[in-house]
Amino acid sequence: MNDLTQTPEMLIATMGARARAAAARLSTASDAQKIDALRRAAQALRDQAPRIIAANARDMENAAANGLSPAMLDRLKLDEDRVLATAAGVDQVATLINPLGSVIDRQVRPNGMELSRVRVPLGVIGIIYESRPNVTADAAALCLRAGNAVILRGGSEAKESNRAIHAAMVEGIVAAGLPADAVQLVPTTDRAAVGALLKASEFIDLIVPRGGKSLVARVQEEARVPVLAHLDGINHSYVDGAADPDMAQKLVVNAKMRRTGICGSTETVLIDKAYAEAPAIVKALLDAQCEVRGDEAVQAMDSRVTAASDEDWDTEYLDAIVSVRIVDGLDEALAHIAAHASHHTDAIITEDAERAERFLNAVDSAIVMWNASTQFADGGEFGLGAEIGISTGRLHARGPVALEGLTTYKWLVRGTGQTRP
């Protein structure tokens, strides 16, 4: 147990030292033992679902009283289906191919030395997140399977849910003979603990922030530890002039409205002026109870459309709001995306393969799609199991970060007595 009378710096140092020791034990644990731990943790989540849902109900009540938006409440909410889906995600991580020990490449030098690069754990990972309590299980499962210890710091709005989920995960981990300290949850909601975690370079090898712009900005500003950043999801769906009307309407409505509060939701729809069915798309969005903010051409299509401001093109709404613009072909669409996208996920809807391939190659985002909803921007949908997040940077890992993204590599050199002249 952690002593809550400690200063935040002392608390994080204590947790960090325990995490280092746990990471050392994980490095010698077999993959079969880690799989067993995840199977047991998934079952504990199912067994403890009523307790987890009751804890979440307390969080939901407090969040509603504190005025959280409907989108944020949706992120926070747990019901039986979501708890079971979280358990299934942990089970799925247990089925994934183990990246540890895999040989990335091998070469033999002219002097006969054999060099190879082999995947190994990162060590200790700190994850700072908001709202979504399922991240507690997802992050724990992925870090454990990749051989890393993890220190989790969830948002205050989900503190009861996070504690209940963490308890279930630890139950499974300990039952499999692995250390409880492999997955630790910061027990205080004091913001100073976040600062201490960001500066704990002696203990933490990587920080992963999952949350809003202010959280990520703080992490990037204060961290003395490498950061795997997940920035805004200012995602675009571009309807090309050669798009199939039925497909275009279906994809745009799904990309925006399936779940508006997730980072893969489309926030801006661009429509080629050569596409004749633009009014039908606008109407479908409005009829789906989505607020549409458009340029002059879009406003002329339906009286319910309000004017888009310059700020709208750079906004991640995470709500039933979308900005829509008419563009003059692919070049203007690409220019808009280059100016306003957050390099998360962008999609083209078209039957023209040549334009699609140009879009796929030209858009500099972590995920670029052709004729698919941006809501598929998810590690589970990519077959990676649960994800830590979507990395919008260019170093180490990009797009959905799962097992492989939580590893690094080391060089192994095998010689036969070579000396350097």
Automatic annotation (TrEMBL):
One family name in Pfam for this protein: Aldedh
Domain of life of the source: Bacteria
In its UniProt record, a GO molecular function of this protein is: NADP binding
Claim: Transmembrane helix is one of the keywords in the record? no
Q: Which UniProt keywords apply?
A: Amino-acid biosynthesis, Cytoplasm, NADP, Oxidoreductase, Proline biosynthesis
EC number, UniProt record: 1.2.1.41
GO CC list: cytoplasm
Any one of the GO BP annotations: L-proline biosynthetic process
Pathway of action: Amino-acid biosynthesis; L-proline biosynthesis; L-glutamate 5-semialdehyde from L-glutamate: step 2/2
Q: What is catalysed by this protein?
A: L-glutamate 5-semialdehyde + phosphate + NADP(+) = L-glutamyl 5-phosphate + NADPH + H(+)
On whether Amino-acid biosynthesis is a keyword of this UniProt record, the answer is yes
Q: Which ranges carry the Aldehyde dehydrogenase domain?
A: 15-292
Q: Where is the protein found, in the record's own terms?
A: Cytoplasm
Role of this protein: Catalyzes the NADPH-dependent reduction of L-glutamate 5-phosphate into L-glutamate 5-semialdehyde and phosphate. The product spontaneously undergoes cyclization to form 1-pyrroline-5-carboxylate.
- What family does the entry list? Belongs to the gamma-glutamyl phosphate reductase family.
* Protein name, per record: Gamma-glutamyl phosphate reductase
Query: What's the source species for this entry?
Result: Sphingobium fuliginis (strain ATCC 27551)
Query: Which gene carries the instructions for this protein?
Result: proA
